[in-house]
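Incident review: delayed structure delivery

Summary: a single-chain prediction request sat in the queue longer than the usual turnaround. Root cause was a stuck worker, restarted by the on-call engineer. No data loss occurred. The affected request and its eventual output are reproduced below so the record is complete for anyone auditing the incident later.

Affected input:
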Amino acid sequence: MAELTRLNRPIGTWLLLWPVLWALWIAADGSPRPLLFVVFVVGVVVMRSAGCAFNDLMDKDFDPYVKRTRDRPIAARRVSPREGLAVFLLLLSLALALVLQLDARTIKLSFVGAALAVTYPFFKRFFPIPQFYLGLAFSWGVPMVFMAQLGTVPRVGWNLFIAAVIWTTAYDTLYAMVDRDDDIKLGVRSSAILFGDMDRVIVAALQAMTLIALYLVGDSMLFGHWYQLGVAGAAVFFVYQQWLIRDRDRDGCFRAFRNNNFAGLSVFIGILLEYTFRA
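Output delivered after worker restart:
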């Protein structure tokens, strides 16, 4: 169960959670409502777990031939597809129970997020940049948070959503660089394949765009030096990631992908300190 839902590997949960936490604090002016905090944090864990189970079901014919994924429970036949489907449906039901605690407009947005999550595994079959599509799915919690808190999604909410989408595209490209050789053999699409020798440059450009989008968020909220320090910290981690992928080896790319957890944490600490010490 833990392997199928990746509860034993929480990096994906953290990466999904950071933009939601950014949004919770900004939408609520530093004081998110307890109900919203619980619903969205637990919802992130549940939906990430459900997405992993569904992704393994859809990729059961690919995973055995990829070095990184061949030991996944369904690929290794430790869990049957029927059991995997049962886990997915159970988690989806739990996610629905959580979102029903929110208002009608947020519930409507949640169906868009669910559709993005469920359709993502199919996009790697034909879409040249499935990492961008994953960014849409991973970041959809941001407009949901603003809708739940404010009853609308203001411009800053969409700016934060754009920042999260670009950031996800960047770090998931690092993840795709780990599997590039295997994906080419299997005919699976990825941004790492599409970008080719320009991968490092394009990832750097995406990281720069993420920082610009985050700067615009802070500017529109009149944030000061605490937030700026948080974003600067993320920039330092991005530079370190570029150094890790300098040779494009699997281990370096995977370490760079995981390092994004600290980039997301840095931005959140900046937001938290901004509201804590704001005059």
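Verification: Residues 11-277 form a domain with the Tetracycline Repressor; domain 2 fold (CATH 1.10.357.140).
Action items: add queue-age alerting; document worker restart procedure.
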